[in-house]
């Protein structure tokens, strides 16, 4: 399915009630994306927040994803077509049928409104049902309460703690590892 979004036609890979997950194109207007990844508050819990990223670097990043078996999808609001964040399905292991999910809700006014939850839930359902994935994992910095709650709401369970594995603002923090099996998925 294709849907007109902003400056071009978007390929809608997965449809939700609140958001659509669309394939990102290096030709897209990346102004918002560039703003997100260069905002210290937005990236405070992400490894990507360690240095400035240019539009050219983002184009290369999108091209790399698009030429691999991994997914980098834009999260677009159904109500107005606004690009509010991105979600990834990466480290896809076809032998062990596992993969990892990562998410960024870049638009501050869209955090805590259920958009991230739905994006994770519909991508997880797609991974399990369409790609034959058996287990999904994700990781986050201990203290990123919003991410912990969002992933737990989808059904992810904490499986481990990597002690002092994330360096942020002069301090080391633990990273948390979460996992989800198809039978544990909460789609509602």
Question: Can you walk me through this structure?
Answer:
By secondary structure, the protein is an alpha+beta fold. The protein has a single domain (2-134), classed as Gcn5-related N-acetyltransferase (GNAT) (Aminopeptidase). It is built from 4 helices and 9 strands; from the N terminus they run βββααβββαβαββ. The chain has helices at 31-37, 55-66, 115-129, 145-154, and strands at residues 2-5, 8-15, 19-23, 71-77, 83-93, 98-105, 135-141, 157-168, 171-181. Helix 3 crosses helix 4. It is globular. It starts with a strand and ends in a 7-residue tail after the last strand.
CATH topology: Aminopeptidase
Q: CATH homologous superfamily? A: Gcn5-related N-acetyltransferase (GNAT)
Instruction: Count every helix, treating DSSP H or I runs of 4 or more residues as helices.
Output: 4
Strand-residue fraction? 35-45%
Low confidence ranges: 1-6
How do the helices and strands follow one another from N- to C-terminus? EEEHHEEEHEHEE
Rg over C-alpha atoms, rounded to the nearest angstrom:
16 Å
Count of all domains: 1
Distance linking N and C termini: 24 Å
**Which structural class do you get from the secondary structure elements?**
alpha+beta
Biggest sheet statistics: 9 strands, mixed
Strand numbers in spatial order across the main sheet: 1-2-3-4-5-6-7-9-8
CATH architecture: 3-Layer(aba) Sandwich
Mean pLDDT: 88
Q: How many distinct beta strands?
A: 9
Task: Give the C-level CATH assignment.
Answer: Alpha Beta
Helix content: 10-25%
Shape estimate: globular
């Amino acid at each position: 399915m294709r849907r007109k979004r902003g400056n071009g036609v978007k390929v809608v890979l997965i449809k939700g009630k609140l958001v659509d997950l669309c394939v990102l194109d290096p030709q897209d207007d990346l102004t918002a994306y560039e703003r997100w990844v260069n905002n210290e508050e937005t990236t405070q819990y992400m490894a990507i927040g360690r240095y400035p990223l240019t539009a050219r670097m983002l184009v290369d990043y999108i091209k790399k994803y698009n030429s691999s078996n991994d997914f980098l999808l834009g999260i677009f609001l159904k109500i107005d077509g606004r690009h509010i964040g991105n979600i990834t399905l990466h480290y896809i292991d076809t032998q062990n049928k596992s993969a990892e999910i990562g998410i960024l809700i870049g638009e501050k006014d869209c955090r805590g409104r259920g958009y991230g939850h739905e994006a994770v839930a519909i991508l997880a359902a797609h991974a399990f049902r369409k790609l034959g994935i058996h287990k999904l994992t994700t990781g986050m910095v201990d203290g990123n309460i919003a991410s912990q709650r969002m992933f737990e709401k989808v059904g992810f369970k904490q499986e481990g703690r990597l002690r002092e594995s994330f360096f942020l603002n002069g301090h080391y923090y633990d990273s948390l590892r979460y996992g989800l099996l198809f039978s544990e998925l909460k789609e509602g």
